[in-house]
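Figure S4 source data
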Amino acid sequence: MKTSRFDIRVVVVFLVVILVLSGKLWMDYNERTSRARAKGGEFTIHSEILGEERTFIVHLPAGYNDSVEAFPVLYLLDAEMESVFKHSVSMVESQYKLGVLPKMTVVGVQNVNRNRDTIPVSVEERPGSGGALSFLRFLDEELVPLIEKSYRTSRPRVLYGASNSGLFAVYALLERPDSFDAYIASSPMIGWCPEYIHGLAEERFAETFQDKFLFMIYGSRDYERVTEYILGFVDHIQGKAPEGLRWESRVLDGLGHVPANSLEEGLRALFSQ
């Protein structure tokens, strides 16, 4: 019995398809296993957007290398303050053990020029300020893609900032809401540029916010640039925030600037629903 040329072509095409699929499966397997062996630590990335080297720290959750599970990522600003970074990591781990929070990868982003990176407009009292958009682009277009290529990640993707970096977290939500899923701002210094923030909110709230979360927290004895301006922003949110934005503002009686439990309270609120 002779095999027709048509039959041979079908067999060849079938074998080629099998080889291609096998190669893809092997590449996917290699990628998964290499990512599973990824290590935490301190790293440097050259930012084309900022034109400088930026340092970040990665802390992987316990058991990362013994599983294929993907984890939410917390991006922690001002991570050059070692005590703040270590406290945040310790809190996330302890709250996981208590069953309150999931395991999370923590990425700490260190500062180069804090005034420049965290304040969206030029402020006379803060020399060099006004570069927040470029810093946001660095996070959104360079750092986050690198983290998600190098590690097993899942949603939500969380941004936390305090004081000037808290202002940046609010700004980031308004400027590029899809950069992160949740924005936690401790003692956000909205008073540096209230008109700008209100105007940006007015513009952006006309758009769709799909499943976004904003948590603001501060002390009743906080700086005036927080207490005198955050209430006006809250009023703005109450009247005009889109339905897709879940938000909360919390004041802690008797406490001052950047309450120590700010991140914990924000993460609890995020994962409570």
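Figure S5 source data
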Amino acid sequence: MSSIFWIKQNDTGPAIAATLRDANGDVVDLTGASVRFHMRLKGSTTAKVDAAATVVSASLGEVSYGWAAADTDTVGKFDAEFEVTHSDASVETFPNTSYITVIVKDDIA
């Protein structure tokens, strides 16, 4: 999972994608799981994005989130994470030792 994702203000692509791994670096099996994407402005306690993400490949731990227009309308540096609810109702957040940094860069026009 790349730790920095760049996107221009008001863009809705590309999607942010990740392969979720546990503390040992092993791929997390997402079979039967649901995933949400969370993002907040650095220093804030309020989520700008709290939305369903897509499980691209459950067995390979691959997830993605396709941006909505309102997600990238604010320029700044954001903390982001993928939250997994497993089939046994346990919840696990990735990455669990830090955040994905999302930088929304202003556009010219």
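The radius of gyration is 14 Å. The chain has no helices and nine strands.
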